[in-house]
Design brief:
Elements: E1 2-3, E2 10-11, H1 23-31, E3 35-41, H2 45-49, H3 51-61, E4 66-72, H4 83-93, E5 97-100, H5 108-124
Parallel strand pairs: 3-4, 4-5
Antiparallel strand pairs: 1-2
Length: 139
């Protein structure tokens, strides 16, 4: 449970590592998801290339959930994907993007709070709009 920053309501988050689940498990999770976070390592070009596959699977089973892309910066490992390249890709696809560092904790809270706020606003907003949620536009 996390507290929604703006309303102080408690929000339940469920997180799953989809890379190790079967496609059947992913279908079930995607169908009932309000939002999906796709993470990749800036130190691994293959993980960046797999974003497209995850997006296709997600949209196949849930065209309405919000998708967020998080680039994980590994402080002691050389980058194979630049932040600028990842940001440009996500901008073309119209998905919010943020970089986090597990070592320093940089942007971790901001990423989670932004995701929760956007989902919360979408569920309470009428009518629904297809645009990027305002809480995530600064990413």
């Amino acid at each position: 449970m996390v507290r929604h920053v703006e309303t102080q309501d408690l929000v339940k988050l469920q997180m799953f590592d989809q890379s190790i689940q079967t496609l059947v498990g992913r279908r079930y999770d995607y169908k009932r998801a309000n939002g999906v976070v796709i993470t990749f390592s800036l130190s691994n070009r293959e993980s960046f290339a797999n974003i497209e596959n995850f997006m296709r699977d997600i949209r196949l089973y849930n065209s309405d959930c919000l998708i967020y892309v998080i680039g994980v910066f590994m402080d002691d490992i050389p980058q194979e994907v630049s932040v600028e390249e990842a940001r440009a890709y996500c901008k073309r696809k119209e998905f919010p993007f943020i970089v986090v560092s597990p070592k320093t904790g940089y942007n971790v809270a901001r990423a989670i709070n932004g995701m929760v706020s956007a989902i919360y606003k979408k569920q309470n907003r009428k009518p629904k709009t297809p645009n990027t949620p305002p809480a995530l536009q600064q990413w």
